TrEMBL record, chains A, B, C, D:
Localization per Swiss-Prot or TrEMBL: Cytoplasm, Cytosol
Official protein name in the record: dCTP pyrophosphatase 1
PANTHER family in UniProt: DCTP PYROPHOSPHATASE 1 (PTHR14552:SF21), PTHR14552
Keywords tagged on the record: Cytoplasm, Hydrolase, Magnesium, Metal-binding
Molecular function as annotated in GO: dCTP diphosphatase activity; magnesium ion binding
Top EC class for this record: hydrolase
Species this protein is from: Cinchona calisaya
Catalytic activity: dCTP + H2O = dCMP + diphosphate + H(+)
Length: 145, 145, 145, 145
């Protein structure tokens, strides 16, 4: 049940094709549009200070607006992946596996610490683990996906 | 076929729970982590000038790296939606319907124009249409989702 | 006293020229580089929850790192303005004047409210004021520049 | 001559104080507001494809709008630095010196290459150099500040 990334990709491709918008949907155009939507998403949260999970104090209208901004980011992300020829569904399942290797449960439980890691700009260093115990003097937070 | 947003949400929730990371996954923490990943995604494209669809000149390693950055954005987006109590699958299908109303095919075909529209910061102005003909003097591009 | 935007612009231009980097410094390349640096800035804050002004609990090393990320954003912003032919010093002083008109002291004092305002995508609506009293039912926060 | 970062910091601090907005200007609130403005800046460029330096084809109104968005990013960046207790003018001059060490002219001239570098998340690796000759097989672009 539930909507798949494939279905959303198809809907976006059809939407663009019907409007003859493929001419505008270059990778960097879509990337900048995505950044624009992330900006709008940030605006929803910008003057609120910390907000608790579940947004208990938000009005329904605000939550709906938030859902729209989250959706805009998602739609551009899916469209960007598509025009780049990236199979996002396949990529995300692979990334989840890499994350499981990178953040082993036994080393990462409750840890907000991160090893200085070699940041290789063209490929993930998935074979190195990235959590350390709280005994470490390294105070940099980590809880990444 | 294909992975659903629901499945990814579940996987992310389990991943965080196993590592006792729920304590770190507040809405604004996750939002800033998302912004961080969008930054990494942008770095993939930053010195390349315009790149054609399909990324024909990219090496396999670079495409794989791109897939990882796209995935990181997706995973934080899904996690953020979850901790906010937003049903992203439902929201995105609703947003697609709003977009279809906002950008009617007959008015928007091939148009990169956008009406100055009233930007209501708490709810989408879905009932107003946003494309105009090329005769307009308004040169602001539009092809948004 | 203190460093001017003009001086920083000159330093960046010289830096690029000496390294023959003008060829890479197109507007959109620099914009994406800026987004990348904003991502790195966000990472500094991402797992911290709310942090008080003055960052009393941060170690000196972290503050220095923060200063570097803030600087990277500034340098790309100045460089982007330069290659776009925008006089940032002039623009920012004009924007401060527009903000003073847009947010009058007597209407905006202590107010986190914002009128739904007409968002004109090509020019600021500087003549309309944007604050309202707390009696308003509009709960959208505002304290923008 | 020209406006200094110090002057802009003072103007922003006065602006906030007059409106009793200090209560809203926490570090993460301002950071998210900055991200919002970067989103608006990106929207200016999002559907344009590559644009040449100097923006020769842009109308005056568009350039003015661009100047406003660049200014908004600058103002929030300066304000964020201020409330974090970071002396941005001092930090940026130091960063320029670090960059000069990191990207030596003789190694970086015309090079769009970057060494895989150890990314230390709490301090810059300013003593390591980051450019390599074009003979390198590493195709990752670099021209960073």
């Amino acid at each position: 049940m539930g909507v798949t990334l494939e279905e959303l990709k198809k809907k976006m491709a059809d939407f663009a094709k019907e409007r003859d918008w493929d001419q505008f949907h270059s990778p960097r155009n879509l990337l900048l549009a995505l950044v624009g939507e992330v900006g709008e998403l940030s605006e929803v949260f910008q003057w609120k200070g910390e907000v608790p999970r579940g947004l208990p104090d938000w009005e329904e209208e605000e939550k709906q607006h938030l859902g729209e901004e989250l959706s805009d980011v998602l739609l551009y992300l899916i469209r960007l992946s598509d025009v780049c020829g990236i199979d996002l569904g396949k990529a995300v399942l692979r990334k989840l596996e890499l994350n499981a290797l990178k953040y082993p449960v036994n080393l990462c439980r409750g840890s907000s610490k991160k090893l200085k890691h070699i940041h290789n700009s063209t490929t993930a260093t998935a074979t190195s683990t990235s959590c350390i115990t709280n005994e470490s003097e390294n105070g940099v937070a980590n809880n990444g996906v």
